[in-house]
Amino acid sequence: ELLQGLETLFDKSSLVIAQEFKPTEFDWRIGVLDNQPLYACRYFMAKRHWQIIKHDKQSGEKDEGRADTLPVEQAPSAVVDLAVRAASLYGDGLFGVDLKQLGKDVVVIEVNDNPTISAGIEDDVLGDELYLRIMRYFMGRVEQKKRARRYL
Predict the structure, then answer these.
(1) Rounded to an integer, what distance in angstroms lies between the CA atom of residue 3 and that of residue 93?
(2) pLDDT tens digits for 45-72?
(3) Is residue 100 within 8 Å of 27, Cβ to Cβ?
(4) Whole-model pTM?
(5) pLDDT tens, position by position, 126-137
(6) Dihedral of CA 83/85/90/94: which sign?
(7) What is the rounded distance in angstroms from the CA atom of residue 21 to the CA atom of residue 41?
């Protein structure tokens, strides 16, 4: 199955990156804005599945694991610190960093530059303040650009 899948992928690309499977009960998502942690979520795996979303190819239905958000200060510091460091490699914008924690080991799964922010999940702790922080940040960037143009 792997060889057949690789053959299909190599028809479209000269590079294929594989990620080691690391089973965990949940994945962390740390929201990072301007190199600061913004929110901390745990996304639990779908029932009897190895991912947070299980897609049924025949019915088109999907089953999602539950999610919970906690104050950033309550998330493990190793998870939060690694998320901020990973996001900083891409810049100082808004990122959602997915991580797995296996005992004391923490690994980055991916850095999302357009993270999903769902009402009732990522905003569960900060509420409207989450959106206000994001809007203030981007408005500050717009104002900074306007000021810079005045001096050109």
Answers:
(1) 38
(2) 888 777 777 787 888 888 888 899 999 9
(3) yes
(4) 0.84
(5) 999 999 999 999
(6) positive
(7) 21
Helix H or strand E segment including 143: helix 128-150
Average pLDDT, the chain: 92
Of 102, 106, 117, nearest to 38 (Cα)?
Answer: 117
Amino acid, res. 143: E
Q: Which residue has the tokens 């004391």?
A: 104
Angle at the Cα of 75 from the Cα atoms of 69 and 79, rounded to 5 degrees: 115
The tokens of 1 are what?
């199955």
Confidence of residue 152 (pLDDT cuts 50, 70, 90): low
Q: So what's the pLDDT on residue 55?
A: 82
User: Up-side HSE of residue 20: CA atoms within 13 Å toward CB?
Assistant: 6
The strand pair at 36-44 and 53-55 is best described as unpaired
Please give the torsion angle defined by the CA atoms of residues 113, 137, 41 and 16, in that order, rounded to the nearest 10 degrees. 10
